[in-house]
Automatic annotation (TrEMBL):
Cofactor names: Mn(2+)
Catalytic residues (positions): H199 (proton donor/acceptor)
Listed InterPro entries: Calcineurin-like_PHP, Metallo-depent_PP-like, PPA2-like, Ser/Thr-sp_prot-phosphatase
Family (UniProt): Belongs to the PPP phosphatase family.
Pfam families referenced in this protein's UniProt entry, alphabetically: Metallophos
Catalysis performed (reactions): O-phospho-L-threonyl-[protein] + H2O = L-threonyl-[protein] + phosphate
Documented EC number(s): 3.1.3.16
CDD domains the UniProt entry points to: MPP_PP2A_PP4_PP6
PROSITE patterns referenced in this protein's UniProt entry, alphabetically: SER_THR_PHOSPHATASE
Gene3D superfamilies: 3.60.21.10
UniProt-recorded name of the protein: Serine/threonine-protein phosphatase
Keywords: Hydrolase, Manganese, Metal-binding, Protein phosphatase
């Protein structure tokens, strides 16, 4: 009873966007790990359920989401990853979702996004470093002066951005398009489901804000370590009533069946390639077959790939996040793939609305569109993060 009371207090504190103690974060993550380790790579979720896309540390917009969608445990939630990075409140966002997962484990499901990752980069102050283009930033791969110490790899979007800057013992910088963040699963484990997106990665969170935020708010990287350890336990996907497959990014040429996903060892950092990477990084494209992704990770997949996957697994549709959609949601391939985006006015500057998908017990769909929280209800620093669409 005392344990539940402490958890309730922490949830209320986090709802006010107030940090909990470092020791409480450690204990919370330990409890979350006990719950998450029992979940499948393809976590079963029952309807009715509300499905949500990227949040990216926009805490006050997460509060707007709960305002329009209902609070946990009254509403059953599935969050499809990318809880951290870019927004100013990744710590509070992830910890609130994690606390809700622990409190109501059957009411919230969290799956991993590509930002739920630790390993790519330890650039702790990205806003204090500016890279501008010189004559050597051409369209080819460039290795200059110290080939064993620095590697610059350019992708198709690298007229302006660097895909991989590697300084082996000191800095590793990998940049593609933009997807790495952490997740939250604690207080109401049966009412919220979180799945992993490409931002649920240690490397990406070190470039796009979460690492630096933990260091700034707690004075050490201990909280970042506790949270990124949890990333590895997040499910890679979910299946609603056996008919709607939910994943952060998309499909993989290495995966034809859900059973193949179930065999992946997910308790690791997000790899740079392979099926686990693809699930968190891939995108649908108006084409056929497989294509090279401009993100530098994952693949582009066409309508025929989706048709084959859905038929083989007897699912009606794929629901995913990972891509900014100005209208909040977007259908692909004759409504066999759906993108849901749940971070309104992304990076506090994009001007988009957000959406959540509400599924009733018959899997009938109802979209709720919502806008960013009013300016007067939030405390936003004057400097806004740069919106890098492709990560």
């Amino acid at each position: 009873m005392a344990e539940t009371s402490d958890l309730d207090r922490q949830i209320e504190q986090l709802r006010r966007c107030e940090l909990i103690k470092e020791a409480e974060v450690k204990a919370l993550c330990a409890k979350a790990r006990e719950i998450l380790v029992e979940e499948s790579n393809v976590q079963r979720v029952d309807s009715p359920v509300t499905v949500c896309g990227d949040i990216h540390g926009q805490f006050y917009d997460l509060k707007e989401l709960f305002k329009v969608g209902g609070d946990v445990p009254d509403t059953n939630y599935l969050f499809m990853g990318d809880f951290v990075d870019r927004g100013f409140y990744s710590v509070e966002t992830f910890l609130l979702l994690l606390a809700l997962k622990v409190r109501y484990p059957d009411r919230i499901t969290l799956i991993r996004g590509n930002h739920e990752s630790r390993q790519i980069t330890q650039v702790r102050y990205p806003d204090r470093i500016t890279l501008i283009r010189g004559n050597h930033e051409s369209r080819q791969i460039t290795q200059v002066r110290y080939p064993d110490r620095i590697t610059l790899i350019r992708g198709n979007h690298e007229s302006r951005q660097i895909t991989q800057v590697r300084y082996p013992d000191r800095i590793t910088l990998i940049r593609g398009n933009h997807e790495s963040r952490q997740i939250t699963q604690v207080r109401y484990p049966d009412r919220i489901t979180l799945i992993r997106g490409n931002h649920e990665s240690r490397q990406i969170t070190q470039v796009y804000g979460f690492y630096d935020e933990c260091l700034r708010k707690y004075g050490s990287i201990a909280v970042w370590r506790y949270c990124t350890e949890i990333f590895d336990y997040l499910s890679l996907s979910a299946i609603i009533d056996g008919k709607i497959f939910c994943v952060h990014g998309g499909l993989s040429p290495s995966i034809q069946t859900l059973d193949q996903i179930r065999t992946i060892d997910r308790k690791q950092e997000v790899p740079h390639d392979g099926p686990m990477c693809d699930l968190l990084w891939s995108d649908p494209e108006d084409t056929t077959g497989w294509g090279v992704s401009p993100r530098g990770a994952g693949y582009l997949f066409g309508s025929d790939v989706v048709a084959q996957f859905n038929a083989a697994n007897e699912v009606d549709m794929i629901c995913r996040a990972h891509q900014l959609v100005m209208e909040g949601y977007k259908w692909h391939f004759n409504e066999t793939v759906l993108t849901v985006w749940s971070a309104p006015n992304y990076c506090y500057r994009c001007g988009n609305v957000a959406a959540i998908l509400e599924l009733d017990e018959h899997l009938q769909k109802d979209f709720t569109i919502f806008e960013a929280a009013p300016q007067e209800s939030r405390g936003i620093p004057s400097k806004k993060p740069v919106a890098d669409y492709f990560l």
